[in-house]
Amino acid sequence: MRETQSSSIADVAELTGLSQDTLRWYEREGILPRVGRSASGHRRYSERERELVLMLAALRDTGMTTEMMKEFVALLGEGAASHGRRVALLERARERLAEKRAEIERASTALESKIGHYQELIAAGLDCDGAPVTEEVRTLQTARE
Amino acid sequence: MRETQSSSIADVAELTGLSQDTLRWYEREGILPRVGRSASGHRRYSERERELVLMLAALRDTGMTTEMMKEFVALLGEGAASHGRRVALLERARERLAEKRAEIERASTALESKIGHYQELIAAGLDCDGAPVTEEVRTLQTARE
DNA sequence: TCTTGACCTGGAGTCCACTCCAGGGTTTAG
DNA sequence: CTAAACCCTGGAGTGGACTCCAGGTCAAGA
């Protein structure tokens, strides 16, 4: 029964896009359960551990906090019985995301209107008080640096 | 020539939604130019200054960094000639926003598929390895705490 | 043997945008 | 006259998620 190939921290960093430091930090913080070590004390990630790190990287990219990631990993340890709670946790992440999206949409609207405002002023050749600007200023307006 | 009513920091905090501490901090950091003081040394915001703070609050809400806000205020000081550069700055903010939006959309897709995955497993009564779960586990799965 | 390179640990530093605090002055109401 | 509000300043602390560092171990190659 040959065990699946284990990988070094460098491999896993490359695989997951997390830095080696981040990987070590996740372990120290208890987000990632302690990974196996080789005789010389180097981390050796098993297939299972690689998958777990990949999942954490994905969850992180959903904007989940490390605290939530920690909870999620704890639920993984409880097996199928925790499926409902996993969904609940993911739904919390979904809500956070929805809020962020709403903020972005609001910000976007505000920004577009500000951009539009200045573009109109430029096009109309007016300053902020509605007075016409000089030819010299018009030249400067379109120079962008 | 009666000058427009000036307001206290408390008023401006209330008006803009920024905290008094934030207002003072913006000034210290040079984001907001030094505000006038009363005889006793208290800040007194003029109409112009109130407007400026309102604009900064709006820009902040677009996710602009304080560094960019600083630049923007500097451009305001240059009058109409800086309109083009103002637009350029706002467009940088727009790009940042677009990136954030893209990230959120990616994250959202990933999250939905994870949620769907677990919901399917629950509905099908299977564990992560495709084996059927016991009745007891099914009960636990739907209990969400 | 010596060097190089990968890795280890615990701890400190970084970034951003605040937020809080100590110690002190002023203004207003009673 | 005193207490309560309100404000001032400079400096330190916060939180989240890393990132960097010093000092050390270990294995392989020239």
Topology:
Two copies of one chain form a homodimer.
Chain A: H1 9-16, H2 20-28, H3 47-61, H4 66-76, H5 83-124, H6 135-142
Helix pairs in contact in A: 4-5
Chain A binds a DNA duplex (30 and 30 nucleotides) through helix 2.
In words, what does this structure look like?
- The structure is a homodimer of 145-residue chains.
- With 145 residues, chain A is mostly helical.
- Helix content of chain A is 64%, strand content 0%.
- Chain A contains six helices and no strands.
- Chain A has helices at residues 9-16, 20-28, 47-61, 66-76, 83-124, 135-142.
- The N and C termini of chain A lie far apart (67 Å).
- The mean pLDDT of chain A is 94.
- At the A-B interface, α5 and α6 of A face α5 and α6 of B.
- Chain A binds a DNA duplex (30 and 30 nucleotides) through α2.
What's the short story on this structure?
2 copies of one chain form a homodimer. Chain A is an all-alpha fold.
Order of helices and strands of chain A: HHHHHH
The end-to-end span of chain A amounts to: 67 Å
If you compute it from the alpha carbons, what radius of gyration of chain A comes out, rounded to the nearest whole angstrom? Answer: 26 Å
Structural class of chain A: mainly alpha
- Please give the oligomerization state of what you see: homodimer
Write down how many β-strands of chain A occur, each being a DSSP E stretch of 2 or more residues. 0
> Biggest interface and which pair forms it?
A-B, 46 and 46 residues
Jot down its keywords:
homodimer, mainly alpha, 6 helices, 64% helix, 0% strand
